[in-house]
Each structure stands twice: as structure tokens, then as C-alpha cells.
Design brief:
CATH class of the largest domain: Alpha Beta
Structural class: alpha+beta
Number of domains: 2
CATH architecture of the largest domain: 3-Layer(aba) Sandwich
Strand order of the largest sheet: 1-3-2-15-14-13-12-11-10
CATH superfamily of the largest domain: DD-peptidase/beta-lactamase superfamily
Number of strands: 15
Number of helices: 15
């Protein structure tokens, strides 16, 4: 790949910003898929958001960045850069992208729905549902509950930072191993070759292992695949037509999408950029393997934040967020059960989730009532996308006040 050409292409800023006409605001928010032709809208907050998008390309050298806002006025979409550095194709609202750990919110929602139906309890142990899977090296499945898994308090080692796995999925070796397939059980086995970080309930640390186990528990409880549960219980009822769990050996994206570019998490300024659009996401599965769109994610979080997906008791469990320890995760963030929150400079608290996987970073956050949301994505994984996402949150929610 001609990196010089790629950087030159990525450096050209392409801007787009649109919003539906006012007569369809209610339909746009409540779920009517019929949208009127977008027309431009300029506000100070949207102009500030667009400036961040432009800076992502011209300053950070990312291929492209998009943000889609949903609020009481309708839907606004802004973009900069390109979807394909070879052709210069622009980024579009309907693009699918890999959502990384935003998958966790879908996984937690499914588990909480099963809890509401009394098909499982958050106090059930891992051993009850997955006997013999978590053992050895001080790991005790009898002491770990579903609540521990969802809240990142299980103490289980995060398989994603295992040196063997890191050596295959980050750096130059990724290109050889991008199509490697893992079963969920293999990922758990990697985790349990390590001692736990702490006793269950005695600390907090970000761990993908817990969400792999929740995915397996969902399958054991329902007798159906995790992918089937996402489709039948969330994607289909909400008409999330671009949202899915990739199937076995499904390496590309099904619908319209930007190409995804990666430096394979190498920090050297001259690290080579690779097209990583195709990969096997089984190494992330129910912890980070899903695909969605900005519009779908805004719709999903609007329903979830608005209290229309979970009963009140389970809603309360999900949003019982505790501050995360300094240096352990996103600075200033709190974490509940598959749901995080942070406070912007205006004093408003926003709720949602972010995600990262090779070639794709994304963030979707909104107000607690689900009336004002912004979904963002970049199709590159270098130069601090999270910092850019935070700047967009500050710009978009500058006029929101503490609830």
C-alpha cells in the first residue's frame, strides 16, 4: 500500500452536514424510518462539532470522521474526510462500522431482559450456568455472579491483554492472524491461565472476559445463539437494519461501509497504515464484535435511555454507575452494567458507551432521557480518537444543563 498517497488522501477535508426538515421530527425520534430529504442547518454547537470533524482529518490525519445527532429538532449528520482513501469516496450516514465495546450494552440489555423474565438472576453464579468453564489459578466460578461480570467487578483477567493474544492481534503479526477464529471458550481459557486481578466484588477493572461469559450464559439460558438473540430481541423490534453479530467466517461488512484503516496500534509516527476492513471478529464476540450504524445506535440508545427497552428495576440496575478507578479506564467515567456516564463542562451528565477494534473507533452518548444523542465514528485507529470524541461531546452538549 502506498502510505504517502493514503496520507495525502486522508489530509483532504470533505465536509457534509445535514438535518431533516422539521415536519418529520417526531417520526425521526420515535422510530419512523421514513425520512424527508435532509437540508442544511447551522447552529453554533453544530458548527463546533463540524470543526472537530475537520480537525480529525486535517490535524490528526485520520481518514474520516462522522457524527450523527438526534434531538427534538430531528437528525443532523456531519462528516469530514473519506470512506475510501483510494477512491476518495465520501462518508455517508448509512454506513456500517464495527462498534467494538458498544457491543457490551447490547449484551447487558439481553441479560437484563432475561433477568426481568426471571429466566436468570443477576446473583446467579457463573458455575450455575457454565459448570467447569472457569477454574484454575485461583479463579472461582462459585464466587462470581452475573452482576460481577456485567459491572466489571469479577476480577477475571482480561484475555485481550494476554501477551500471546496481543502478539497476534496488534503490531505486524495482525496481518498474518486477521482471519484467526476463536471460540468463546478459548477466550475464557486464555483468561483463566492467569490469576484473577482481585477477589470478586473487591475491585474494578475493564475486562472483556466477563462479557464473553455473559454471552455464553445468554446462549445457555435461551438455547439460541447470541446473534439470534440480538436480532430477535433488539435489532428486529427496533428496526435496526444495519445492526448484527457477524456469522462464522464472515469477515467483511454486509452493507454500505467505509474502509477501515489501522496502524495496528503501533505508536511510531511512520507506522504503516493497513486496510483492515476484513477480519474475523470472533476474538471480540459478545464483548466487542458487533456491527451497526450511527442511526441505529442513536435509535437503540434513545429507546434504552428513554426507558422503553428495560423494565424499571432492570433500568435501575443498568444505570447504577460507580466511578471507575483513576488510570483504569476513560478519565472521569463511571460504569454501571454495560452503561457508562461522564460529565461534560456544562455540568450535564451523558450516558452511553464507546468501542474500539482494529480500524474503527466509535462513541454514542446522550442525555438521560434519550432525547438528545450523538453517535460518532472514525475509520482509523490512531492519534487519540477518544480525545476527538470528547471534544464533540463538549461541543454538542454545551447547552445542556445538569438534570
Amino acid at each position: 500500500m502506498d502510505v504517502g498517497r493514503e496520507r495525502a488522501s486522508a489530509g483532504r477535508v470533505r465536509r457534509r452536514s445535514v438535518i431533516p426538515t422539521g415536519k418529520n421530527v417526531t417520526g425521526a425520534h420515535r422510530g419512523d424510518r421514513r425520512m424527508t430529504k435532509p437540508v442544511p442547518q447551522q447552529t453554533s454547537s453544530r458548527a463546533a462539532v463540524q470543526e472537530v470533524l475537520d480537525r480529525a482529518v486535517s490535524g490528526a490525519g485520520l481518514p474520516g470522521m462522522v457524527a450523527e445527532v438526534q434531538d427534538r429538532r430531528g437528525r443532523w449528520f456531519g462528516a469530514a474526510g473519506v470512506a475510501d482513501t483510494a477512491t476518495g469516496r465520501e462518508r455517508l450516514p448509512e454506513e456500517q462500522y464495527r462498534i467494538g465495546s458498544t457491543t457490551k450494552t447490547f449484551t447487558a440489555t439481553l441479560a437484563l431482559l432475561l433477568a426481568a423474565e426471571r429466566r436468570l438472576s443477576l446473583d446467579d453464579t457463573v458455575e450455575r450456568w457454565l459448570p467447569g468453564l472457569v477454574e484454575g489459578n485461583g479463579n472461582d466460578a462459585d464466587a462470581i455472579t452475573v452482576r460481577h461480570l456485567l459491572g466489571m467487578t469479577s476480577g477475571l483477567f482480561n484475555y485481550s491483554v494476554d501477551e500471546g493474544l496481543l502478539s497476534r492481534h496488534y503490531g505486524p503479526a495482525f496481518l498474518e492472524h486477521r482471519y484467526d477464529r476463536f471460540s468463546p471458550e478459548q477466550l475464557v481459557e486464555i483468561a483463566t491461565t492467569h490469576a484473577p486481578d482481585f477477589a470478586p466484588g473487591d475491585g474494578w477493572t475493564y475486562s472483556n472476559t466477563g462479557y464473553i461469559l455473559v454471552g455464553l450464559i445468554i446462549e445457555r439460558v435461551t438455547g439460541r445463539t447470541f446473534a439470534h438473540q440480538v436480532e430477535q430481541r433488539i435489532a428486529r423490534p427496533l428496526e435496526l437494519t444495519g445492526t448484527y453479530v457477524p456469522g462464522d467466517d464472515e469477515h467483511g461488512l454486509r452493507g454500505p461501509h467505509a474502509r477501515l484503516y489501522s496502524k495496528n496500534f503501533l505508536t511510531a509516527p511512520d507506522a504503516e497504515v493497513h486496510d483492515v476492513t476484513e477480519l474475523d471478529a470472533s476474538f471480540a464476540w459478545s464483548a466487542g464484535g458487533m456491527v451497526s450504524t450511527a442511526g441505529d445506535l442513536n435509535r437503540f440508545f434513545a429507546e434504552l435511555l428513554g426507558g422503553r427497552l428495560l423494565p424499571p428495576a432492570q433500568q435501575e440496575e443498568m444505570f447504577a454507575a460507580r466511578p471507575t478507578p483513576e488510570g483504569k479506564w476513560i478519565p472521569g467515567a463511571s460504569y454501571g452494567l454495560g452503561m457508562s456516564s461522564m460529565t461534560v463542562s456544562s455540568g450535564a451528565k451523558v450516558w452511553g458507551m464507546g468501542g474500539a477494534i482494529n480500524g474503527s473507533f466509535c462513541y454514542t452518548y446522550g442525555t438521560r432521557d434519550g432525547e438528545h444523542l450523538v453517535a460518532q465514528s472514525v475509520n482509523g485507529d490512531w492519534n487519540d480518537p477518544i480525545g476527538l470524541f470528547t471534544q464533540v461531546l463538549e461541543a454538542e452538549f454545551a447547552d445542556e444543563r445538569p438534570a
